[in-house]
Amino acid sequence: MTLNDIIALDKKYFMNTFGDRLPVCFVRGKGMKLWDTNGKEYNDFLAGIAVSALGHSHPALVNAIVEQAQKFIHCSNYYYIESQAKLAQLIVENSCCDRVFFANSGAEANEGAIKLARLYFRKKGQPEKFEIITLEKSFHGRTLATLAATGQDKYQKNYSPLTPKFLSVPNNDIKALEEAISEYTCAVMLEPIQGESGVNPTNVDYIRQVRELCNRKGILLIFDEVQCGLGRTGKLFAYEHYGVEPDIFTLAKALGGGFPIGALCAKEPYASAFAPGDHGSTFGGNPLACNTAFAVLSTIINDNLSKNSAVMGDYFMEKLSQLKDKWPFIKEVRGKGLMIGVELTVPKAVEVKKKCLDAGYLIGSVGENIIRMLPPLIITREDIDGFITALDKIMSEL
Ligand SMILES: Cc1ncc(COP(=O)(O)O)c(C=O)c1O
Fold first, then answer.
1. Any idea what the Cα angle at residue 333 is, between residues 332 and 335, rounded to 5°?
2. Structure pTM?
3. Below-50 pLDDT ranges, the chain
4. What is the CATH number of domain 72-302?
5. Which of 24, 34, 51, 377 has the fewest C-beta atoms under 10 angstroms from its C-beta?
6. Nearest-CA neighbor of 288 among 86, 105, 76, 83?
7. CA 342 / ligand 1 centre spacing (Å)
8. Catalytic residue among 130, 223, 224, 355
9. Residues 268, 92: contact at Cβ < 8 Å?
10. Which of 121, 139, 223, 259 is catalytic?
């Protein structure tokens, strides 16, 4: 099919949730690269929004899918699943959590976290504790509960009344958080580095104060590591940057390297609040998803891709900072590891994104002023150099 045929079908039959997409359709990928219907080559600096951590068609990922698909794909959670048990073990042995539950997406993993926090207090005899405090500019998903948790009006405004009981407070403001905590609060939920609002890192001191506050108030701390987890920020888990451990954290995106899977990860005694029948999923944790995610996570760990993310992230930030010194309309370069945002003083983020696409580079934009880069964790210096040269040229044309 030609690109125009595909666009015509999409416009006629697909619900218009994504508006006018960029006019490209990919047919093949390998490593950092993708090719479109016209054979044009692109360097992927977005990785499907922090998903394709191993790049495209990584042999470990492809083999895991093929190997499991040839055996069987699905059997339901009525039975024991070897890859599910092994993936849970791999996550537990490499993180601060004691138990894991598998869902199909980030939003679903967060739904699980919300349910678990509420249930923990209900089972402790405190059913009134069901409120969750989140941060402004956060993003936790598109289901009704995670939408209510998301601290951004633009996602919520058409869906009121929102699911109770969520409230958002300003980021990096411990006093505002403390004042918001009441006898109804069961948890604080936050992204250590906010992704969807344009890469906004949370202060180290603030996160430590939040941990201390949650301990003092006897409430749970949930980290949404759906975007910032799994090596993205230069450590396997973002919480490692802060010297604190969450009681519950969630993963998705990179976990399956492109295959849908999410994980709800919790310490004891919180994890055990889920008893048989309290939560479930038809597809969540199925053999294909878990065999794939096991291969992806093993590769991230064994190939030390978190380290590559840290080293390449520093290099990338340094190069972008040089561009900032050169081009006055670059206001700020921020992020950690390979989760990078560049804020412009001018509303040209979409234009820059489109020019990058023309130049064969995929990046993201947030609002009118921020461009966002979330490349695969396998990225090299040469990849970054190529992008910087292209971006420099684009900046010179702005
Ligand atoms: C921090 C965070 N949490 C949750 C989600 C929702 O994940 P999903 O789209 O897989 O439901 C996202 C997606 O962008 C995210 O960035």
1. 130
2. 0.97
3. none
4. 3.40.640.10
5. 24
6. 83
7. 20
8. 224
9. no
10. 139
